[in-house]
Structures
1.
Amino acid sequence: MRSKGTAAELEARRRLAVLRVSEGWTRAEVAAFLGVHRETVGEWVRAHAAGGQKALAPKPHPGRTPFLTADQEKRVLGWLTESPTKHGFRTDLWTAKQVAELIRTKFGVAFHPNYLREWLTKRNHTPQKPARRAKQRNPEAIAAWLKQDWPRIKKRSGGRTPTSS
């Protein structure tokens, strides 16, 4: 399993281990100091002896290269804090299809909407649906009804709400 840390941090740790061993520290002391196994320190020392400083350099990232750079990912996540209408869409609800379309037009990268849903979920963006409200809803009329009519209706029912018995 790969240790936690950036490639540069892990390389610095390997170089420090080799340096400490060359200064006279035992492999067990270096391992305890760095929080690794004694045999790991031995592997680093042997690699350095065989290939020099170049042998301690980080290895290429395994697997497929990500479709978006870290900067592009930040920009995409920033878009999600804005309204979709600002980006030319008709509704105020982001969909995976809209995000995929925006990524394609801005960065030239094609994501399948199903994959994009998974990608967004891993970054703590889950599907959102707005509260359903009637188009005819009138907040002023509701407030007036609650102030004037509801107390009269409640008084007639003896203080009981419709759900109480």
2.
Amino acid sequence: MLNELPAEKAYRVLESGPIVMVSTRGTDGRVNLMTMGFHMMMQHEPPLVGAIIGPWDYSHRALSDTGECVLAVPTVDLAETVVDIGNCSGDALDKFAHFGLTPASAQTVEAPLVRECWANLECRVADDGWTRRYNLWVLEVQRVWIDTARKETRLVHHQGDGRFSVDGDTLDLGERMVRWRYLMD
């Protein structure tokens, strides 16, 4: 039996990518973090990520002014912190200090890495042509940092409406990816 969901709930089916935190540093030097679930890989070379960051997000101004950010990828041990970060605004508090997170220097952007995260992607805006109409930023990944010493590597995936799933077993079908082998290590 098929049950219908309202069309505006499409994200509950399609948006299962890992939750990320967007780190920015404004032209005034102030750093901020926001939680983001709406993002997507757009292409491999150059590596482009589409990210929805609208004017309702405090980070929008810093991204608009500087054209750069860090996408920090937290693991399941940070899930509650990530949700709490998404429930408050950077205009009211220093989220790094309030949530006990450590900003670390990036190499190609001024926005800080988040030391407690498993991965950090330094990004620059590649195309802001869709921001006014769709709040969609096209970000080009400049560098990727992975904390190989972390024991916890399970990612948290947004399913909408406060529901999340956590990485489980990995199904490795790399040997069958013959057409895309050049993308594999």
3.
Amino acid sequence: MTALEFTYQIGTFSKFLRPFALRLTKDGDDANDLVQDTLVKAFTNRDKYQDGTNLKAWLFTIMKNTFITQYQRMVRRNTFIDTTDNLHYINSMESLQENKAVNFFISEDIQSALSKIDSMYRVPFMLYFEGFKYHEIAEELQLPIGTVKNRIFMARRDLKNHLHMYA
């Protein structure tokens, strides 16, 4: 097959490559890049193509192997391995240290929201939050158990409204 015939054949099959590339990459720009890489590899390796074999299958194989190679390269680039005795993954979530400032601000927001709730609702809620059962709270505050449940529900609803930014 001459270079001109080879180029013509690849041109006719190139329209089938993009849908396959989209299925692999799930992104339009990445799919276009993958098709381009595949065609460049096909042209540069034209001498490795054997006449009489399925050119379309050859192109799909090049594309699949190119995608796998690029994916493996991306994974290797994003994973660093510590070569000390422990062999930890440096970018793993287990080694992540959190700043306690975020928890401090959240705690301040919760305390502020609790202070805005009427004490009629806040007291039963705090007792429940501390681990008391409904019937224990009802005895302590000398209220019917249904009233205790209702006040805890109302306190939760008010807290949810005050803390809507954390939803």
